[in-house]
Amino acid sequence: MKNKHLLLGLALIAGISSCQDAATADKQSEADKESYRTPDTKLASDIMTPEVLWSFGRLGGVTISPDETSVLYGVSYFHKAENRSYRDLYTLSVDGGTPVRLTNTNKNEYGETWRPDGKKIAYMTAASGSMQMWEMNPDGSNPTQVSDVEGGIGSFQYAPDMSKIYYMKEVRLEKSVEDLYSDLPKANARVINDMNYRHWDNWVDTYTHIFLADYKEGVMITEGEDIMPGERWSAPVKPFGGNEQVVWTPDSKTLAYVSRKKSGVEYAKSTNSDIYFYDIAKKTTTNMTQGMMGYDMNPVFSPDGSKMAWESMERDGYEADKNRLFVMDIATGEKKYYTEDFDQNVGHLAWAKDGASLFFISDWHATDEIYNINLTDGKIAKLTEGVHNYQSVFVVGNELLATRVSMSKPAEIYKVNPKDGNATEISFENKKILDQLKMGKVEKRWVKTTDNKQMLVWMIYPPNFDANKKYPTLLYCQGGPQGTVSQFWSYRWNFQMMAANDYIIVAPNRRGLPGFGQEWLEQISGDYGGQNMKDYLSAIDDAKKESFVDETRLGCVGASYGGFSTFWLAGHHNKRFKAFIAHDGMFNLEAQYLETEEMWFVNWDLGGAFWEKNNKIAQRSYANSPHKFVQNWDTPILVIHGGKDFRIVESQGMQAFNAARLRGIPAQLLHLPEENHWVLGVQNGILWQRTYFNWLDKWLKDEKK
Questions:
Q1: Backbone angles phi and psi of 694, in degrees to 5
Q2: Is 572:629 a contact under the CB 8 Å cutoff?
Q3: Domain Peptidase S9 prolyl oligopeptidase catalytic: where (predicted)?
């Protein structure tokens, strides 16, 4: 399962895991800290290991200085012994060169941004005991606390004229058991009256509200005014919304924010978020996307403030609907849909300097590239091409600045020429490690499906691949279900990590994935056990024709919908596979319908409730629930599940493991009590990799098996 708007957030969240107090680190010498915070890593070999994978610096939070000469960003490094990350801030010339390190503390710095006049850099840190806003000079000197808000803040941003800031803060509006029954102070319970009582990996005890406060250099901010008083919903939209959903207009008179203003069952069943304008002077709120029923997200204003562009989905309850580009004339309220004839998604919008065009990123045929749309004639131009994914784009003078990844390289910063698409790397955070590693070949193939379509399949080979040998081979099943098998870099499902262990990986862009048009994407909804499963088998059956693929040693792995796929294929694979691994997968769809927190997802993708006996789509979905085919299971399976995964709860994995063992099938359960739908802790992440490969090696490499 996925959220359509989390792709950029994935990299950031993965880099912010901080599992314990920094007291241990305080005792370390500066020399010891430097050894892993700016590592000069000497690898024992040129083959990646889990420890090497977790030693990469994770770069994110890129912002450009007001004078467009400098890039501000953060980098996280993980320390295995302390089971935590350290995140520091850097600046770098937009022309490249040596980065300047601005911070070096044990508390970590987040939410970095430039003050509009460029004279200060602001950020958040818990150095004072709670997360607050701080400022420092652009060279990192004179760090000064700016806010002292009770309970801390979640994020902030300056008004363009620097007269105010907004900040986010958690607000409790519901009474706790202790509030209701003061004579029971030790009672540990919740009284729940409606849905949306937990989400993603947290119980919903508070709501994120936006506060406004006056800003003046040297004056401490201690409290602001809640612009959403008494409202029982959050802005930005949880769990992944950030500052991209709360934006000042260029004249500083209005704050635009995104919220899904629903509650209870209605909230759980809907994706209908809207963009609201809060008038600072009048203290009034206006819904600017009233009547637009799907996600409306991520507003960006033209340089002169006359227009607002945003990402919009048409249908309520459908997170994988086409992500469309809309532009509004602020004065008239007129909205124009610009990508009606463009059968692709748009994201990460950035206005050109003259306000006449927009840059954006879109996935097509399994890579994410930069595009430009001319607002006068509506013409769209693809600017870049390659085996990579662009993750963000910024306009800097007559050029672009962007972050980019691939299956063989984590995020770095590039300067891009918009005229020819040529890109030049300017940050080299991970060069020292990458220069010591040998990566496997990444190959793009087109495979014919059972219904005579062409499907793009990625093949990733071991670093020292020998075509005269036979290799165990893994079918990778993607999550989402409408996730992307593009050129992503992952710290869990890392294809180069798998290849380094002498496996060939087959990663198909089966039905239900973006980048191949909306018809290809939408086919999967209501057809979980159908064509996309045939696509998986087409991909692996095509691969095993190769002389170097050992068809007697095939494995099948995946998470989320990929975990569902693994469970389903375990009952339908006709002896193809010798080992399965399912992480956070749906096993019992009837239970899943009532266990998950985002009802809009199961209503759309499964077609409705299992008790709707006359609903043919729903009944087909539940008839294909993996738990109904356990009698066919005959292959060893590893099940992994997080205890804080409220999207697909841990009982799904436990049911699958128990079913396998009751049937006498070799099985193992890796339960991670503190992890959610991902694995964010460094030691848990390394444990995940070791368990994963121990299982595969046992069943696909041990000659006795």
A1: -60, -40
A2: yes
A3: 489-702
Half-sphere exposure of 674 (CA within 13 A, CB side): 11
Q: Domain limits of the chain?
A: 439-700
Kindly report, residue by residue over 487-505, the tens digit of the pLDDT.
999 999 999 999 999 999 9
Distance (Å, whole) CA 230 – CA 386: 49
Which region holds residue 494: left if phi is over 0, alpha if psi is between -120 and 50, else beta?
beta
From the list 502, 527, 584, 645, the catalytic residue is 645
Residues 450 and 595: their CA atoms lie apart, in Å, by: 34
Catalytic residue, chosen from 5, 388, 573, 677, is 677
Q: Return the structure tokens found at 517.
A: 């048009």
What pLDDT was estimated at residue 679? 98
Q: Residue 560 catalytic?
A: yes
Is the Cβ–Cβ distance between 274 and 256 less than 8 Å?
no
- β-pair partners for 456: 446
Closest CA to 581 of 597, 563, 599: 563
**Contact between 582 and 558 (Cβ < 8 Å):** yes
- Cα–Cα distance for residue pair 529/520, rounded to 1 Å: 16
Strands (E), 128-195: 132-136, 144-145, 155-158, 164-171
CA distance 644 to 642: 6
DSSP-assigned letters across all residues of 382-395 = E---SSSEEEEEEE
Q: Quote the CA–CA distance of 592 and 202 in Å, as a whole number.
A: 18
Helix pair 531-543, 561-570: axis angle to 10 deg: 70
**Average pLDDT of the segment spanning 73-102:** 97
- 487 within 8 A of 407, measured Cβ to Cβ: yes
Residue with tokens 């501000």: 72
Chain centroid to Cα 146, Å, comes to 30
Q: Is 252 a catalytic residue?
A: no
* β-sheet with 274-279: strand ranges across: 246-248, 254-259, 274-279, 284-287
More confident residue, 26 or 530: 530
Contact by Cβ (8 Å): 528, 592: no
pTM: 0.94
Helix, strand and coil percent figures for the chain, each rounded to 5: 20, 30, 50
For residue 108, CA distances in Å to 75, 114, 157, 271 come to 10, 18, 19, 34
Pairing of strands 399-406, 409-416: antiparallel
SS3 200: coil
Active site residue 85: no
H helix intervals, 108-262: 177-180
For residue 605, report the phi and psi dihedrals to the nearest 5 degrees: -75, -30
Alpha-carbon span 221 to 224, nearest angstrom? 8
Structure tokens at 76: 């996280």
Confirm if 371 and 379 have CB atoms less than 8 A apart. no
Q: How many CB atoms lie within 10 A of CB 411?
A: 26
CA distance 209 to 169: 6
The arithmetic mean of pLDDT across residues 642-664, rounded, is 98
In degrees and rounded to multiples of 5, residue 174 shows phi and psi of -95, 150
The tokens for 149 are: 């808000």
Residue 18 has pLDDT above 70, yes or no: no
User: Could you confirm whether domain 439-700 is CATH 3.10.450.50?
Assistant: no
Asked if the model's pLDDT at residue 28 lies above 50, the reply is no
Which of 525, 560, 565, 625 does the annotation list as catalytic?
560
Contact yes or no for 138/118 (Cβ under 8 A): yes
Q: Tokens for 38? A: 């700016």
Closest by CA to 627, choosing from 567, 566, 572, is: 567
